[in-house]
What does this fold into?
Amino acid sequence: MPRDHSREQPQWLLARHSALTARQLLRAYGLLCLFSLTIAAAFALRGLWYIPVFSFAELGLVALALLHYLRHARDYEHIALRDGELIIEQVSAGHCRRHHFYPWRTRIAVPQWPRQLIQIKDSGAGGAHVDVGVFATPERRRQVAQELLALLPPPISPPAPP
It folds into this structure.
């Protein structure tokens, strides 16, 4: 039975790849705290009280770094063509930004260099501009940009002045 391609709505998810889950990170931090505080306690028993102070400062800074890591572990970019609209959703540290583009007014710039992102521009009066592909490899960025170009209609050029 043939599939109905007219109902398919293409979408791409470009997500950050995290090496550790929150549980693994908490366990590693717990072991670090246990090890560091054991050594600090041994020095404190010998009368060297400044060692535990530095140990607590170190563990506090590591905790701040791990919290920053956890805040950004679930960052992603979602690109979708739905109901005649190009929707780009960018999530960073729990904050979501959503951009809407009309496909016939949208211009896509395929990345030419390894660090260049996909540039999506609205050629209409608003002139919105979004860079996408922060979490993707250069090859994946080029692939997504080329797939988008193939799916979007050619942009309507503005009328020529008389």
Notes: The chain has three helices and seven strands. The two ends are 53 Å apart (CA to CA). Residues 22-45 form the longest helix (24 residues). The chain has a mean pLDDT of 89.
